[in-house]
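Slide 14.
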Amino acid sequence: MAATIARQPSDQDPVYFNHPGVAVVTWNPDLRAACLESQGWADTCESHAALDAVIRALRAHRGSRCLVDNRKKAIKPADQEWIAEDWLPRALGAGLRLTAIVEPETGPATVTIQEIEVRYFSTVIRAAEWLTDPPEAA
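Slide 15: predicted structure.
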């Protein structure tokens, strides 16, 4: 498996968000997961747009899994509250149940999430392996 999770657009594997240097959100049919690859720091509007694209991907594919590659950025504290209070309930409503997060190289970025199972990984390969062989609940 490649070290990146981003893919080129296609009918079966569309791109839901693509802002070079910020983030790309795709659907990975092999993982049956929405994949968000952070490419650098994003302002609040860009962060929200990328995360909302994850919800669109989940809905479009009736998905329950998400792989987040945060090696190149951490979640800003100001955005963590929005994620917990606004985005997470909508993501759960869209079907999200498993999230694999590859930690930033500068240390863990945490968000309190109790409704879904979240695991942190040091590599995209390990995160993808966990998603493809998830716990029984998924």
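Speaker note: The beta strands are 15-19, 23-28, 33-38, 65-69, 98-102, 117-121.
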